[in-house]
Design brief:
Elements (H helix, E strand, L loop, with lengths): L15 H4 L5 E6 L2 H4 L4 H8 L2 E4 L5 H4 L15 H12 L3 E9 L9 E3 L2 E2 L2 H22 L5 E8 L30 H7 L12 H13 L4 E6 L5 H19 L23 E4 L2 E3 L10 H10 L3 E10 L13 H20 L4 E6 L25 H11 L2
Parallel strand pairs: 1-2, 1-11, 2-3, 3-6, 6-7, 7-8, 8-10, 9-10, 10-11
Antiparallel strand pairs: 4-5
Length: 397
């Protein structure tokens, strides 16, 4: 296939957001300002998408300076943060916050005092609260805090494949989710430093603390847990068990939850972890994904009582060390389109439990995995077969 002589967005195409309006929100990511200023990109975004996530701009390292000394509030940089927030508000697009607590793209001072020297759990919790409070106070002062529909509070706390469940995968209580968290996470290491196991403390407590603090400072936002390889059975079970157990802990937490109940009493108020984000970075050739695992993962997450969002969907074609030339051939586009259609058929089936589906990249050239050309639009902003496949599917439902 040869490149088109007429690159650019076709704003006459059916809107993805409108096509799926009766099912769920349809989102994408806001990237660097220069990317968003490319011809018609802002208009195309507002045309196709009604939810927006910052690709990187809201991650801790993009807001707070690095180093091992906690900065002052005045050292925080909110320029890119506010650009994304303002874009959402100006275009009446639902704003998704991403992310508050993560082992990646975060400044060292949050959890360490020097290389390989974790803070104590008390110090790390204090820094966690400082960071979350600083964001909340900034948005409150700007009058934009209520624009955050949801936050990905904790991101990727579990090992890639979920570890070993330790029992029958159909037995939801056979394993222990805490054993499957990332024990090398700097948050885990800090919370292990001074951990009183005799009092029931555990290094994974940073996860619970993150949600307690997020609820305190972003009380109107839906609080999500977000992870990748979430369809892998062991990881699926660990994530679901974590959500259930921490929500039960919250229901009986008289110290932090003003609506707490006596243990054993039915709890009918807001859950602490209200949503599960399925990143959904899938591959046809590189690290081939088993899409048959997606249905049982959705079903297991529904059983937790949490709402679901597909937060970072993309599907690569080819191998990273031997990428296909752009654009994809017709046969390659068809393979990708079939995979997208398979997933969206599931999403429509479970739409009453799915709040949002977000693609992770506006075009192939702007994708973090551009080598695999994983989005709905090619590098010239032209709709691919995958786009037409899911538009056709929406029209049938």
């Amino acid at each position: 296939m040869t490149k088109s002589s007429n690159p650019g967005w076709n704003l006459n195409l059916t809107s993805l957001a409108q096509a799926y309006k009766k099912h769920f929100m349809f989102g994408n990511i806001y990237s660097k300002t220069a990317t968003m200023l490319e011809p018609d990109t802002r208009r195309a975004f507002a045309h196709h998408f009604n939810a927006v996530t910052a690709e990187n701009g809201h991650k801790p390292i993009l807001i707070a300076p690095n180093g091992f000394t906690r900065p002052s509030v005045s050292e925080y940089n909110f320029t890119d943060v506010d650009a994304i927030v303002n874009f959402a508000i100006e275009n009446n697009i639902t704003l998704i916050g991403h992310v508050l607590v993560w082992h990646g793209q975060s400044p060292d001072w949050l959890y360490a005092s020097a290389p390989d020297t974790p803070l104590t759990r008390a110090q790390a919790r204090s820094n966690m609260e400082f960071h979350i409070r600083t964001l909340a106070e900034h948005f409150t002062n700007k009058g934009t805090i209520d624009a955050f529909h949801s936050w990905d509070v904790v991101n990727e706390a579990f090992v890639s494949e979920g570890g070993e469940w330790g029992g029958c995968l159909d037995d939801w209580n056979a394993g222990d989710w805490r054993a499957q968290t990332r024990h090398n996470s700097p948050w885990h290491l800090a919370y292990a430093n001074g951990c009183d196991t005799s009092a029931g403390e555990h290094p994974s407590d940073y996860i619970y603390d993150a949600y307690v603090l997020a609820r305190r400072y972003f009380p109107k936002s839906t609080l999500y847990y977000n992870d990748f390889n979430e369809e892998t059975p062991a990881k699926r079970n660990a994530i679901a068990q974590m959500v259930e157990q921490l929500n039960l802990r919250w229901a009986n937490d008289n110290d932090n939850n003003p609506e707490a109940v006596i243990q054993g009493t039915d709890y009918t108020k807001r859950k602490l972890i209200e949503g599960i984000g399925m990143q959904s970075h899938y591959h046809l050739d590189q690290w081939p994904s088993n899409l048959e695992n997606v249905r049982p993962a959705i079903e297991r997450f529904i059983a937790t009582g949490a709402v679901i969002s597909i937060t970072e969907l993309d599907i690569t074609v080819g191998k990273q060390d031997n990428p296909h030339a752009a654009p994809l051939s017709k046969a390659e586009q068809q393979r990708q389109a079939q995979a997208y259609a398979k997933l969206f058929k599931l999403y429509i089936e479970f739409a009453k439990h799915i709040e949002r589906v977000s693609i992770w990249g506006k075009t192939d050239s702007q994708s973090w995995r551009s080598w695999g050309q994983p989005t709905l639009f090619d590098g010239e902003c032209h709709a691919k077969d995958a786009f037409y496949a899911i538009i056709e599917l929406a029209g049938k439902h």
